[in-house]
Each structure stands twice: as structure tokens, then as C-alpha cells.
Amino acid sequence: MKKKLLSMVSLSAIFMMNGQEKDSLHQKKIEEVVITGQYVQQSINKSIYKVEVIDSEQIKNMAVTSVGEVLNQNLNILIEPNSGSGDSNARIMGLGGAYTKVLIDNIPIVSDQGMGNLVDLSKINVNNVERIEIVKGAMGVEYGNNAVAGVINIITKKKYSQKVNAILSLQEETVGKDYDWFKKGNGRHVQSLNLGFRLSDNWSVAADINHNDFQGYKGILNGYRYFNENNDKQRGYEWLPKDQITANASVRYSKNNTSFFYKVNFLSENINFYNQVIEDLPLGGGSRTYVANDRDYFTKRWIHQFNIQTKLGSRINYLGDFSYQTQERKSQDYRYDIPNRNVLSKEDKATFYDSKVFYSRGMFSNFLDNDRFNFQLGYELDHTSGFAGSSTFQFNNNGINIERSIFSYANFLSAEWRLNDQISLRPGTRLALSDTFDHQYNYSLTAKYSASEKSDLRAVFGSSNRFPTYDELYTYVVDNNHDIHGNENLKPETGYSLGLFWDYANAASNAWRFNLSVSGMYLDVKDRIESVIVSTSPLKYTFLNIDNYRSLLFGGGLNVRKGDLSLNAGVSVMGISQSLNTGTVFSPSDYNFYTEANFSANYSLPKAKTLFALYYKYTGIQKQFTQKVNQNPGAAPEFVLGEIEDFNMMNFTITQPFLKNHLELTAGIKNIFDVSTVRNTIITGGAHNAGSSNQNLFYGRSYFARLNYNF
């Protein structure tokens, strides 16, 4: 641990020693704008919410390939990959992907389990991302259900300064120690093309395509070609190979007080599962071969979006979003002859998830000709229909398919009152109606105090509901080992959050600039849904609204800039308290605290324009109570303190431009400390089912090189 921290300090010291007085272009004082939680797009300094922004320059310097990789650098966000399904969800403030709303341009994204939650962040590439906005805490008034832990809003590029913009990018990356160019080989291979055309002062069009070919990570396994006569179960991959293509096309119009854009997004993803279990197949005449029952998974997703911003009459602002989205996931089983590398038989493709969503959100504001008082009236409707086949990644649904649809409609109202030049208030409320659940109310109250141009204090209270997922409502699984039943009588969870945020910015006369932030948050989730053992013999589970969850978060951050040098550092301490309930025994509800810290440094050589970038994050030991699974069916339930061990992540990149900045070469190392799995005795079976296991988080140290050419 001391060596790791020493290496980080040494690298950062090099940057600090070489700091220059002269500002570089990317360090100009440009006023950042945000849209998340706002009536209209406005300066981040004027936002009444605390909005964290990751801009396109930061994303490019990280040399990442998906949104999940970007967010992993943020404090109190952990991207949890599922090495079996290939999905990656965001865990914010200790809560999983079901509690976070993920948006693209203010529109929730379709997923297997619904709309906006449990979104696979590895399916969102960063090829055309302008910035990512993050608001932590319950945002139910503005964004509805499932925005309990926060909102992640991915803003795509729409404006172009030049008439023709064309960028070609190629990136080659090792996966652990494995790499080669060949198909069915090793490594990650990424190609992208981004095009933008400004047709006139009012019209622009854009298109991009990205191909991300991940050849899988073997880990302790030996790949798809391996077989052993003794069936030692060492065939396959810890991280499944996946081949992903994403494409976007958009058209935008803007004139006077009206602007609109239409955008279509397409995703195609193929994942290859190679069975660890092999079979001996006699061929006759004393010869034999070895076969495995393998499976491919196919995902197709379409997102259509239309956005319009205009004025109704001479004063009223209208912002409207309309979206139709589909996502279909299929599987195909086949029998594979391993020694001869030949497919012996292949079944038809079968759909196991199919979601269709129509979504619309509209907001009206600026009703009054008053600089100090404004209010916003909005609506939101969501019709989601879903099909879940009897065979999924996790289980066989006893031959029963699930087909359901959920319609919800909401109205929300908020008012923004600027009492004077220092104090602003925004109360808000939402009423949500559904054909499946009882009506839900959400409330918010936000206050901002600007002591000076340098100092802002924000206090934010909010609530949000988390609707049950398809699995929790309708799952019906029976096999030889367990019996799991969904519960259609579940009610939505309710989350409440309170946050205090203080920001201070200063630009000293000697050209040093710094921003200091301090924050504290409290989150309380009532009626939390968990799987519960309702019978030990035979072993049966169901889902019930029985638990409570609370978290406390304290943090601080510092940004320092001078000339071509930029330094960022942050630290947070979070405590989690869970009240778990088996019906007869309750868990301890003590808070268990853990620490996170991050650090980044960017330095650019003034003449050569060589950019050095370092990113570091430490996640401390996490402890939570969880239910022990007893081998004796008659034993009383028992709660134990599970643990996730600590780990360090560090990435380092060097970028060099050539040919008057038309050509750019980037190289670097990801995951310098070679983290792959961590010991986890909490998550293995869920909060009510403990187990001792290793959790896959990363696939070890990797090296990459990227080439960008700007035509």
C-alpha cells in the first residue's frame, strides 16, 4: 500500500514541478452550462442543484471506451460488471443500478428491466459524448421513479463550429497480458468515425459509428479452444467476449427562440458464452471427440428521440421530449466440437427479453414577467411493454414466459423564487399515477445562498420511488436447488435524501486558480425490496417490502489550476446502515463506514503540446450485515458482517499531437496495480443471502494505443 501511494505522489510531483505560468487553450475560463434539473440550459454556477460535470476533454484524456469506464473514476460511484452477462451497472451511495436513473439527452434509456434503471453502461460508448452530468440524491420530482440515488445524464454532441467535421479513431488495447490482431484472438480493438456538417447557420447534421471488439478475458480459465479428458472445468472466459456496434444519426435546427433535433441510435451486440463443462462424444471405430453446449447472445436496440425548445406566445418557454425505444435480446444454443473447431448443430434463435417503450416529457416555464419568481409545470408519461422468456442468463423460468405492460403518468410542479441577490428557493411536487401501482407523491425543496461571487451554499431535500423490477414482480423459478417466486403485491420503495453542498472558487493574482467543495448527504430508503427465505425445507424464496436502508456521506474536493497544470483531489467517508428482516430476526442497524479518495493530474508541455494525464482512485474496506445461509434447514436465521476488501485503481496516459493538431497519438496503461477480483462476502447472494466469493471488478492491467485523425 505504501509503495502504491508513493508512486502516485512521485508522479504527481513531476507534474507540479513542471507547471507553467501561461494558460493553455483547454484551461481557459469557459463558463460551463448544464441542463440536468434546470428550467433551461444555464451556467453551472447558477444551477440551484449541485451538478458534477465530466466534459469531453476529460473523457478523451482518459482514453476510455464506454461511459462505465468514465464513471468509475468518480467518488461514491462503483461500476459493477457482470462477467457472465457482460452488463455493467452503476452503484451510487451503496445502492445498485435499480436506484439510479440513466438518461441520454434528458431521456431515460430502455433496459431489460424497465426504463432508465438497470441500464448497461458498457452499451453506451463515448464516441459522441459532449459531457456527462451527475446529480446525487433523490430526484423524483424532476425525473420520476427510480431516481433514488441520483441521475446520470449523458449529453451528446449537437453543435459544430466548422462546416465539416470528421474524426477517425483507432484504439488497440491488451486485455490483461493477452493481445493479438486476429479474429477469435485476444485484446480489445476499437474503431470509430464521427462526422458533423453545419449546413447553414440554422441547420446541422451528424452521424457516427463505433465498433468495440472485446475478445474476452480468460483469467483463471483457458479460453474456448481448451479441453481436458477429465473435464476439469477450466474451459471458457471469466469475462465473456463481446462484439459491439453503435451508430447515431441526428439533424438539428436552431433559429431565434426555436430549436429542435431528431436523433436515432442503434446498438448491435453479440456475446459468446463458452461452457466450462465438456462431454466425451464417441465417433465409432474407437475414435472420439469432445464437445460443449455453447451459447451466443444477441442484443438489438433502437432509440428514436425528438426534442423541441420554443416559446409559446411571447413569453412561455416549452421544452418537449418524445421517444420510442426498443430492445430485444436473443440467445442461440449450439453444440461445438472443440478439437476440430466445428459447430455440430445449432438451434434457432430464441428471444428472452424484449422491451418496447413510448416516453414523453414536457415542461412549461416563464409564465410571469418577473425576474425574481418563476414556476414550471410539467408532465411525463411512460408506456413500457416487456416480454421475458423462460430462459435467461440466470435461471430457467420453469417453462413460463412473462408478458406484461406498465403505463404511468405524472404531473410535476416547481417554483423558483429569488428572494434577493443572495437567496433562491425552489419547492416542488409530483403526482404519479400508474395502472399497476398505487399513486405516488414526491416532494423537493432546494435552497441556494450565494454569499459572494466566489461562494455558494446549497441545501437540497428530495424524494423518489423505486418501482419493482420484472424479476421481483413476476419471477417464477423452480429447480432442484431452490424455489423463487415473484410477488405481484409489492409496493414501490420510497427514498428520501438531504444534502448540503458548499463551493468556493478563487482566482489569485499570481494566476493560481482553485475550487474547493465540501458536502454532506443523508439517504433513507423505506420498504426496501429483498429476497427472503420463507421456507428452509424445501428452500423457498420470495420478494417482500421488509428492509430499510440508510447511508451517510461526507466529502470534500479540491481543484487547482495554473497554466498548463490541473490537479484534482477528493475524499469521502460513507456509512451504510441496513435493517434486514427475516420475519423472526432483525439484523443490527449500526452504521459501517468506509473511505474513498481520488486524484487526477493533467499537464501539457507548452511547446510540444504533449499531455500527461494521471487518474487514481482508492476504495476502502466496505462492511455490511448480511444473512448467513445455514446448512442445517432447521437452524434459526443469523446475520453476519460481510466484507468487500479495499483496492486501488490508477491509469496513466500520454497524448502527442502532430500535423498542426490533425493527428493525435495516445498511449498509456490502465489499472496499473493489476486489480482483477476482490474478496466479497456481501453481494454474492444478495443482502439476505451471504456467501464467500471473489467479485470480478476489472480484468487486470492493460496497455493501449489510440490514433485520432481530424480531417
TrEMBL record:
SUPFAM superfamilies: Porins
Gene Ontology CC: one annotated term: cell outer membrane
Protein topology in the membrane: Multi-pass membrane protein
Keywords: Cell outer membrane, Membrane, Receptor, TonB box, Transmembrane, Transmembrane beta strand, Transport
This protein's record includes keyword Magnesium: no
Domain TonB-dependent receptor-like beta-barrel, residue spans: 241-672
PANTHER family associated with the record: BLL4766 PROTEIN, TONB-DEPENDENT OUTER MEMBRANE RECEPTOR
Name this polypeptide is given: TonB-dependent receptor
Residue span(s) of domain TonB-dependent receptor plug: 46-151
A GO biological-process term: siderophore transmembrane transport
Matches recorded under InterPro entries: Beta-barrel_TonB, Beta-barrel_TonB_sf, Plug_dom, Plug_dom_sf, TonB-dep_rcpt-like
Gene3D superfamilies hit by this protein: TonB-dependent receptor, beta-barrel domain, TonB-dependent receptor, plug domain
UniProt GO molecular function: siderophore uptake transmembrane transporter activity
Family: Belongs to the TonB-dependent receptor family.
